[in-house]
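Supplementary Note 3. Input sequence used for the single-chain structure prediction.
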Amino acid sequence: MDADTGKEVKMDYRFSHIKKVLVANRGEIAVRCIRACKKVGVKSVSTYTESDSTSLHASLADENILLPGENANGYLDADEILKTCKRLNVDAIIPGYGFLSEDAPFAQKVVDAGMVFVGPSPESMTEMGQKHRARDLAVAADVPVVPGTELLESETAALEAAKKLGFPIMLKATGGGGGMGLQVCHNEEEISAAFKKVKSRGETLFNNSGVFLEKYYPESRHIEVQIFGNGTDVVHFGERECSIQRRHQKVIEECPSSFVQRRPSMREKLAKCATAYALQLKYKSAGTIEFLVDDNTGDFFFLEMNTRLQVEHGITELCYGIDLVALMLQQADCEKGGRTGLSSEYLHSLQKDGPDGAAIEVRVHAEVPFRNYAPSPGLLQYVEWPAGDGIRVDTWVKTGQRIAPFYDPLIAKVMVRASDRDGASKKMTRVLSEAKLQGPPTNLHFLRDVVASNSFLEGDTLTNFLETKFKYEPCAIDVLSPGSFTTIQDFPARATSGHGIPKGGPMDNVSSRIANILVDNHPGTETLEITLSGPELLFTAPAVFSVTGSPVPVTVDGEAQPMWSRVIIQAGQKLKVGKVENGGCRCYLAVKGGFPEIPPYLGSKAGTPSLAFGGTQGRQLQMGDWIELDPSTKQWAQTSMPYTLPKSCVPNYDITEIYCMHGPHDSDDFMTTKDRLMLYNTAWKIGHNSNRTGIRLVGPVPEWSRKDGGEGGSHPSNVFDYGYPSPGGINWGGDSAAIFSMDSPDLGGLLCSSTIVSADLWRLGQVKPGGYLRLRPTTFEHARELAGRVETFIEGIHGLVDGKSEAVPSLNLDLPPSGLEHGTSNAIIKRIPGEGERFQVVYRQAGDSFFLVEIGKQTCDVRVTSRIRLLVQKLEALKLNLVMNPNIGSVMIQFDANAISQNKLLKTVMDLEASIEYSTDIKIPCREIYLPVVFDHPDIRASEQRYMETNRPTAAYLPDNVEYLRTNNGYSTRQEVFQTLLKSPYLIVAVGFFVGTPILFPLEPMSGIVGQKYNPTRVSTPGGTIGMGGSLFAIYPLEAPGGYMLFARTMECWDTFGNGPSFTPTRPWLFEPFDIVHYHEVSVAEYDKLMLSYKRGEYKFDIREGVFSLHDVYEIFEKSKTDPKVMAFREGQRQGVEQNLTLEKKLYGEWVAEQEAEKKRDAERVKEMMEAEPSITIDSPIDANVWKVLVEVGDVLKEGQIVAILEAMKMEINVLCTEEAGGTVVEAIASKPGTVVSPGAWIIVAKIDEK
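The predicted structure, written as discrete structure tokens, is reproduced below.
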């Protein structure tokens, strides 16, 4: 059984002359040609451009060559392709369709270079490339032609010819094809504009301005005959019908034509005309003769000949048991051997009297039929095609493929074959219903509806089918405007598995769940989370929706609608959600049935734009997005009744306080009594840059109870890396705090003083930048009581809406006093002192869902790290449904307090820890991973340079991070620094932060270098960078912000969709705690080649099974304590650190002073301007950061123009020129990019233009 035809194929041929073929194309046809080469035993070469580097064809061939040209231009660069062929000793070029497939000069160059062009001769292409010439040949061959003209010289000539033929007519560019260069005219008035357009497009697209005219048949069919020639003889393989078209381009094709099937003699007539026509050209290889068929009379007329393989060739293969691409390669092999072609006897043996069964093909495009087939490039988040007998899918995409905007939007050709047309139609409907293409909108459902329509099933498939026989009625939301920051969120989102994968989900899960309850969804169904200002959405089908959350105006076609209500919207109506009013900052839109085509990622549909996964293509909503609704939405809209919740059920969104628990780090060893009093008595201002990754707190600075962070870092807020209580932890970076929210990291080296209780995370999600918030400490017991109240309230709402209860629930959020003395902390719930060989163990609470186990004195000790590993293994064996985040000296345990209490879990962990033997004679199975490393990669140098240009120009670690590490650790040369990476294995002590970032510790004492972290941090770090901070290392899994020193580069280690051989869709991270990494050096060129292989999903990591021997490693470190060489290294390191700290303190102080001075100078200059003469200002509407200023001093302002873009909560806010400022001249930029502004702060100062 043949993989491409689905039938037994006997095409016995032995290749003798062609050994290697270059495929000069992309996408599905390139894949088809490569597979044909493999099948016949010929080596293949693929070509691809940068934007196609992850396409299937770019890695499928025996050799895959990156073209230097950009986008489509790369595939059209004939000279470069010919150079590649010469370099690789290519024997033949197969062009597929499109691009160079019908380029006669290119084909001639191929022949002149001693190769074979797999296709017709250049002479045949030249003849057929001019449509008027092709028409003349048809007349000579006694083939009927559409009544028409020769080339027309002028509009006047076109008008006279049209009058003579009678309207409607079609003007055609003689060099056109693929539906381009055509214009239908229904009357005399349309001739002039159409003639100009066709002439212009012919000149632009085909370098030929020739125009001719033909009679247009509106009630017609498009039927074509597949032929194949050997230079002396021509055979045929039946006909295909391609009548269903959009914009003169084929959408659905069939073999055989149902119209021809009903007329037994017609196939023979068509085939006779087609072969006679091709014989005139002494045609070689595959080609297609296209005919226009009058549906009323059955008369047919020659349209054109396509001198190439057709897109739809596959359905002929399915019905005639032929492999056309293999046959083309056989013909080319004969030509390469000096023969004219295959024997006529062989060709005639392949020709059959008629088709075996019936086949249908649909072209699946990334486009929106509802928007006149507008293209829709984007990220395919999930791809799945049905398989089975009689099903064939030719495609170039897989899950994770990005559809670029530079090419034809064809994603795949789906083909089915059955015994008859009715069976094929049913099979196609099923296949299209089961296929999954989730991400950018496609025409998949459109095609399904066409094939299932009565007109199609009856064979009423004329060329005007889509305009006259079919009405598409999609069930979807068309996003007209996305709002400021709108994402898809479900609850409870991802059951986190650590590894730097945030939980995600709604920031306010109370509002989101009630929205779902109102429309009779499961409470956790996905909703649209809307921040600050909402979207405008066109519903293409009736639906039931609700909007809950902070107060916001809601309208349908301009008519106000109530919040906290069940509302019915009709097809064609527009829903608009306005700007958030008063308290809160987020609202939620639920639609009955949810959004079924949003694919789950790692168990949830929740979008995490900061990490580019989940939701709508891993990003926030954008204009032009298309969100499919449940097919039952029409029925639900008919049967649902409006409903509004009692006002007493609506929560209060004027949020001024929130409950937290002490710990893990507000204890005396980190914070003073004064710090705690300050922390819990301050009204903290919510920073402008608060968002889904953290809520920023602006306020006083702790005095701290220690002078530095020890081995964790230089600042008192620095600690040894540990698992974060995320979401909820109040995290201190230096002297400023942020509260971890739903998309926050899960490990790091900054302490968390306190943790928001789980039942109040929804209120945290509603605090608005510029507002104020107090933190109220409570106990574990009270936190669980509050959680119970919230869940009881939700259940009460459910019962009330369902009609199962008449009780109106209310939500009481007031808790009794904690009973703790002010200024004290109960963060430490148990401390086991160290004694003898036993390590100290400290148990710290971290909210009501986490607690932290710290072992030892929080210094690098492999005995502690090994002990934590053993503890984790023992806990895993108990299957308590815990999520554990181990690190170098601790493990953070996340637990479900409804399943196990804090006290019970504490006792369990204490017992297990005490049961672990104190011994160094421990061997732990591990994986050993061997990674390439490159030093001084240009991308690292570019990253350092960008930082100096856009962040901070001077620092102890600038301009060269490696040079800083050299001086900081007392080395004489850069090579000595690099050798530290190559001479030591590295133990992965933790995996997390974001997207599987590994934290590594060197197992060789002489590789134990140290370094500070960037201050401020970088906005971008090249993927695969090996970073160094404190005494630990990290590998950046992909391009991301960061603060570690840029040391070297290795392979990226996060594969979002799990396509690579070392990943899976459910395990997109590479590393696990206790893996051991070994590095070996490669050159920049070698590294870039490896990374290209990784990006294409081909790179396989070198992973071997190993054993970690604690005894051996511990002995190395113990001996190093008295090793003179190590001691000298440590002394040099101590001196280097001291010198660099002094230098950094000086440079940082100078930089901060200059920043403040510049701000002061700007403020004084603006003040002087305002005092000197009356001026007009354009002010900031909110607390934000000025991202861009789009005007300059001297510009004349226009009302409504965007003068600046602010950034707040990871949203862009446009600042517009007011009516008052229109016509004025910009006098000063009061707030430059990077300035933090409050509502009313001046951004632009302008004055009236006196001219």
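The domain at 20-118 is CATH 3.40.50.20 (Rossmann fold). The chain has a mean pLDDT of 93.
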